[in-house]
Design goal:
This protein is of the alpha/beta class. The protein has helices at 17-31, 69-84, 100-105, 126-142, 151-161, 183-189, 209-218, 245-256, 267-276, 291-298, 309-312, 327-338, 354-370; strands spanning 2-6, 35-41, 51-52, 55-60, 88-92, 109-114, 145-148, 167-169, 196-200, 233-237, 260-263, 279-282, 303-306, 321-322.
Length: 372
């Protein structure tokens, strides 16, 4: 069968949760013998690849405009899928899902993966939130099958859209950790192993990195120096797709408080930061099921995260959570982590296995092809 994937900026090495999800999932499905094509947004592709790990890559010109690029790209990708003779179009995220009925009208079967209620994100205005809610409704109403990445989302679409049939809970996954050291990179950043807090995500308002910076600035323990070692630092790994007032303000706040900014990184640099961090913090107000949090857990890092439904579903001990926006509570938790010796925690990651997730997804495709 021929499967065409859209709703993502593309793969490989393109920043974003949906992008990471697709980068891990679809090479595994291609390895099962399926014909998989990912339609990429050309403006994000930093290479000229036409295939990667068995997945075909097709680049489509799309204007890089925050409010329009996803829907324009999805429209063009669906048309491309029709011309390719695709059996199944797999659409990711609720914005692109606005065009699920269009793909159905063209005679293709559609799988829609709901990655979270994006209309809750702080960056969107009223008109954008309205369209995202409509996209959610169109995807849930017209897709042949719906995949949700958390039980929170499954309950949400049952309540909001009345969709309970052909809805599949398939969690986000996390690959096996690649433990490594990178002394030259640490020297470049001016940090020491085990002497930094890691924040890893996009620089957008709903991630509340400004709270993390403020809490870190208030934490007294960060000024304590171990014998022969420097003070603990905060490292923010990530950036923004669209530079705006928030991202500029966050970077300025970070610089004023001595925070280390790495920019968008992948590969050995990121793996070394995950291997050697004191802890990971994600104080966000909105998530579907955060891959970054799961990734930090796979590296056995202590984690501090906000007590929102998606993060609570991970099932961490209560002391790992704090209320969204409660900088004082976050400060206390950072102080507690920084006052203890370096520790590593063994989490149960069995339900976040990408190989199992790929098998679960492929079984949906196989079932669709046998349906009338």
């Amino acid at each position: 069968m021929e499967i065409v994937v859209t709703g993502t900026r593309g793969i490989p090495d393109i920043m974003g949760g949906v992008e990471t999800h697709c980068e891990e999932l679809f090479p595994r499905i291609a390895a099962m013998g399926e014909d998989v094509t990912v339609i990429r947004r050309k403006s994000y592709a930093q290479d000229t690849l036409t295939e990667w790990k068995g997945v075909k890559l097709v680049d489509v010109e799309t204007p890089k405009k925050k409010s329009f690029e996803a829907i324009i790209h999805t429209f063009r990708a669906i048309n491309k899928a029709k011309r390719m003779g695709a059996n199944i179009v797999h659409i990711h995220a609720i914005g692109p899902a606005l065009l699920v009925p269009y793909a159905k009208m063209l005679g293709m079967k559609v799988v829609f993966t709901h990655h979270g209620p994006d209309y809750d994100r702080d960056k969107w205005g009223f008109a954008a939130k309205t369209m995202l809610k409509l996209g959610e409704r169109m995807g849930c109403r017209f897709a042949d099958h719906v995949i949700v990445i958390s039980d929170v989302i499954r309950k949400l679409i049952a309540e909001r859209c009345g969709r309970t049939e052909q809805v599949h809970l398939i969690y986000n996954g996390v690959p096996a950790p690649e433990l490594c050291d990178y002394p030259e990179y640490f020297e470049e950043l001016g940090i020491e192993k085990g002497r930094y807090i890691l924040g890893m995500c996009r620089f957008v308002p709903e991630k509340h990195l400004h709270d993390l910076v403020s809490a870190f600035a208030k934490a007294g323990s960060r000024k304590q120096k171990a014998e022969g070692r420097g003070e603990i630092k905060l490292v923010l790994a990530g950036d923004t797709d669209f530079e705006d007032d928030y991202s500029r303000g966050l970077k300025e706040l970070a610089r004023k408080n001595g925070v280390v900014l790495t920019g968008f990184i992948r590969g050995r640099k990121l793996h070394s930061l995950l291997t050697n961090a004191l802890c990971y913090s994600l104080p966000s107000s909105h998530e579907g099921l955060p891959i970054a949090l799961l990734e930090a857990m796979s590296y056995r890092l202590p984690v501090i995260t906000s007590a929102i439904p998606a993060n609570l579903e991970v099932g961490l001990p209560q002391e790992c959570y704090h209320a969204v926006g409660d900088v004082d509570a976050l400060t206390r938790k950072l102080d507690a982590i920084m006052s203890k010796p370096l520790q590593r925690i063994d989490y149960d990651m069995s339900k976040y296995n990408w190989d199992v997730i790929a098998q679960q997804t492929d079984s949906i495709y196989q079932g669709m092809m046998s349906e009338r």
